[in-house]
Specification:
4-stranded antiparallel sheet
């Protein structure tokens, strides 16, 4: 499976991202999530396939969730206690 995606960043939470289908944009993202996420800022367009290496997400899972839910939410990494 291959899909052209848009990656959006959250102005409210550092390192939180939404991945959506490029043609659908934010249409299928629930209003409740957008309220929590803040006004999304487009970061980049990204051709995505199952074998693509992503920094903190599994490309197959991202594609599956975009197909079924209309978006993939990437949460910020957990902060380590020192």
């Amino acid at each position: 499976m291959k899909r052209l995606c848009t990656v959006w960043s959250s102005p409210k939470k550092e390192e939180m991202y939404l991945y959506t289908d490029r043609l659908e944009g934010l249409k299928r993202v629930p209003e409740e999530l957008l309220a929590m996420f803040g006004t999304p800022k487009e970061v980049m367009g990204l051709p995505l396939s199952e074998d693509k290496k992503l920094g903190r997400a599994d490309a197959k899972k991202v594609l599956d969730e975009i197909l079924t839910k209309g978006f993939y939410l990437q949460m910020p990494p957990a902060k380590e206690d020192y």
